[in-house]
Automatic annotation (TrEMBL), chains A, B:
All residue ranges annotated as the Mannose-6-phosphate isomerase type II C-terminal domain in the record: 337-441
Listed GO MF terms: mannose-1-phosphate guanylyltransferase (GTP) activity
InterPro entries: Man6P_isomerase-2_C (IPR001538), Mannose-6P_isomerase_type2 (IPR051161), NTP_transferase_dom (IPR005835), Nucleotide-diphossugar_trans (IPR029044), RmlC-like_jellyroll (IPR014710), RmlC_Cupin_sf (IPR011051)
Organism: Candidatus Egerieousia excrementavium
Gene Ontology annotations of biological process type: GDP-mannose biosynthetic process; polysaccharide metabolic process
UniProt domain Nucleotidyl transferase: residue ranges: 4-265
Name of protein: Cupin domain-containing protein
């Protein structure tokens, strides 16, 4: 069985902890079995592995999330990246083409697609196993998970059950994001929420994908990604399928994509350097900054602070944040990369419009940044912890705590951490952007 | 006439914008006549100068506030610093010894002492002029300002008026910080708040100071500062004086030493990079960080963010912050010095307990830092704006944008800004503290 985890999302609703390259599924806020904290995607992968499903996991995502996935999940999963953000139908089609053409999976193999940002428990994966069995046994071409509704939501899609066949129902019709009154009627008539979990044979989806591309291999198909319509899997596949069944699911299922919902599952009122006084009730603080945060006497708040910004929101109004954040259009101030993490600590524009940007970089032991150069900036690296190997215009040398390296425009440079490396980097130039980079191959010995 | 402004205070109530070296009177939050913002002490000095009192101004303060005063007030005022923090009686005695012995003021000259952190208008200075006239005309040895109480406060001292003489009353008795019921009685009986404004002849106070020190000059007296008892001027002088009069004052008088009071006079709901959505009522944000702050749907809050920390407080509970802040015991993350300002942007302790501290320094045009060396840290300076003159172990050279200077332990260094200089400074060492500094004379050409 192949399990495709969809990892998308712009993450604006959980600003300032999430940003465009660090979506909500990467926030390490959920209590993990070892007593620490894990992210939504780490939790989903861990649960899938513990479930006994014996599924090969493929994560379908955008190129800008690849580094965060590698950093959080490590090996043992496939990663398929869209060359551009489209919608769930093209993303699932691309992942299936990858499984068929790159991984040589057979057309009869059962594929289950699931989102990675739903808060569930192990029963959810038991249900996924049943959906796969139903496809395996030919009960339907497409089986989807029907969540027993908790309330008449206007944010979800609904699927109406038809005839019953064991634990399954046939699917009689779909309604996407109804008005509140229609939602109440749908629930009264027995409709389920569409949980975005789909099971089908690989060949079923490949046949649909083949309507758009005849590329001879996966990489060619990926190049032609623009041929796929920007449309959801629900509209393009589920609603058009001839044989669709629904497996009802009554277990734990939470959408924790908003601060009020997320605060209910993180298990404590404070994460990070923060104090809530005894007079403040039902208030949560998540502080990812080094500086302390104190909340005095204020109730029903979510406070979230990160290098990107500070949010103070009434818990029951916190979804209103999205339009304000969209107006910012600022660079991410924190990112998790395959080589480690960086945090922007100072961002200064001088009177003549040249700029400086100061970062605290942490390169993890054994990891390296690519051999690269920049055309618009100098960089000054001050090494404050660890040891590493520096390559500067082809010259290799050891560097470590106390060293200072001045990298000028156009100089080729790479660094590999022998032990965890902490570097204060001051960038200076007229254009300071992650896109000002030219990468080269470098063979570390 | 000599006007002594008392500038003290630990500033914990206005955390995180104020700290031990940057007390509340230095926060540039009050609307100024030029449309910008000024601090409490800037406002007091400006009002005193505009009042037509023709007073020479002396600021009595602690050594740790000298730089902020020089930076905010510039020249034209005397600054007398206590060698250690004691109380208002010793501070006023020291300032009077300075006026008598260093400034050679005569014993008949009238001195008025006032706090610098009261929010008032020009009428307050008119009243100060009347107090000085009353002393000048021999109506009393000591005249104090009696504020007509706004409510039965338990935080202030009360003075009971006796016999009336023109606009003045004799003072019949003092009550310091009464219980609420007693405060109500006092007000019913006609008591005033003691506004902490006192007028007397210099000789009157010098005679009292001479009970503790016979030092032949001011600097010797300052060395002996410990001989003065730690006691307030009210207890030591006002309550013991034989001839005390009170001048009632009904004009504007606000104690803006707490967030709720301060927020009422700053004239806007937002200062800095912040957004308050339309659903949030009676909420104020003061954001001194570069990152944005968004408040959604939360009412009656004060939000204050600075490099020292973040406060979210219900406006009517915000005084509770003091004990929490006292528990921190952290270094100031922002300071205003005579040469400019610095902001701590990163504070990192490595696994082997060595540390790095990164600052953004701004040295104002024409200003310089002293010739100095450190014994426990290296410093790496990356110049991101401006030009200056660097002295490094006696060698003088020009430096400016794009330069990098590595100053190792023990190296003597000084810098003078030719134009405003912005420097990213990375400190590295086993002990990173402002006290690790040895200063030397340097004659700039």
């Amino acid at each position: 069985m192949q399990l495709i985890l969809l990892s998308g999302g712009s993450g604006k609703r959980l600003w300032p902890l999430s940003n465009d390259s660090y979506s909500k599924q990467f926030l390490r806020l959920l209590p993990s079995p070892d007593g620490g904290r894990e992210s939504m995607i780490q939790r989903a992968v861990r649960q899938a592995r513990e479930s006994g499903l014996d599924a090969q996991i493929t994560i379908a995502t955008g190129e800008n999330q690849r580094d965060a996935i590698v950093s959080q999940i490590g090996g043992g999963v496939n990663i398929v990246t869209e060359p551009e953000r489209r919608d769930t139908f093209p993303a699932i089609a691309l992942a299936c083409l990858y499984l068929g053409m790159e991984k040589k999976c057979g057309p009869d193999e059962v594929v289950v697609v699931m989102p990675c940002d739903t808060y569930t428990d192990i029963q959810y994966f038991t249900a996924i196993g049943k959906m796969a069995d139903a496809v395996e046994n030919g009960l339907a071409e497409l089986v989807l998970m029907g969540i027993c509704p908790h309330y008449p939501s206007v944010k979800y899609g609904y699927v109406m059950p038809g005839e019953r066949n064991g634990e399954l129902f046939s699917a009689k019709g779909f309604t996407e994001k109804p008005e509140i009154e229609r939602a109440k009627e749908l629930i009264a008539e027995g409709a389920f929420w569409n949980g975005g979990v789909f099971a089908f044979r690989l060949g079923y989806m490949l046949a649909i994908a083949r309507q758009y591309t005849n590329a001879p291999d996966f990489w060619k198909a990926r190049e032609e990604y623009g041929v796929f319509p920007k449309i959801s899997f629900d509209y393009q596949v589920a609603e058009k399928a001839e044989s669709v069944a629904v497996l009802p699911f009554k277990g734990m299922w939470k959408d924790i994509g908003t601060w009020d919902a997320l605060s209910e599952v993180i298990g404590s009122n404070v994460i990070g350097n923060a104090i809530i006084d005894e007079h403040a009730r039902n208030t949560h603080i998540i502080n990812q900054l080094d500086i302390p945060c104190i909340c005095i006497g204020a109730n029903n708040l979510v406070v979230a602070a990160s290098p990107d910004g500070i949010l103070i929101a009434d818990k029951y109004n916190c979804e209103q944040v999205k339009p304000y954040v969209s107006a910012f259009e600022v660079r991410p101030m924190y990112e998790e990369r395959r080589w480690g993490t960086y945090k922007v600590i100072d961002n200064y524009t001088s009177s003549d419009s040249t700029r400086s940007l100061t970062k605290h970089l942490c390169i993890a032991e054994g990891r390296s940044i690519s051999y690269q150069r920049h055309f618009h900036r100098d960089e000054v690296w001050t090494f404050v912890e660890g040891s590493g190997i520096l390559v500067l215009d082809g010259q290799v040398r050891n560097v470590g705590k106390g060293d200072v390296v001045h990298i000028t425009k156009g100089q080729m440079h790479a660094i590999k951490a022998v032990t965890d490396l902490h570097i204060l980097e001051v960038q200076m130039g007229d254009f300071l952007d992650e896109s000002d980079i030219e990468r080269f191959e470098y063979k570390w010995e």
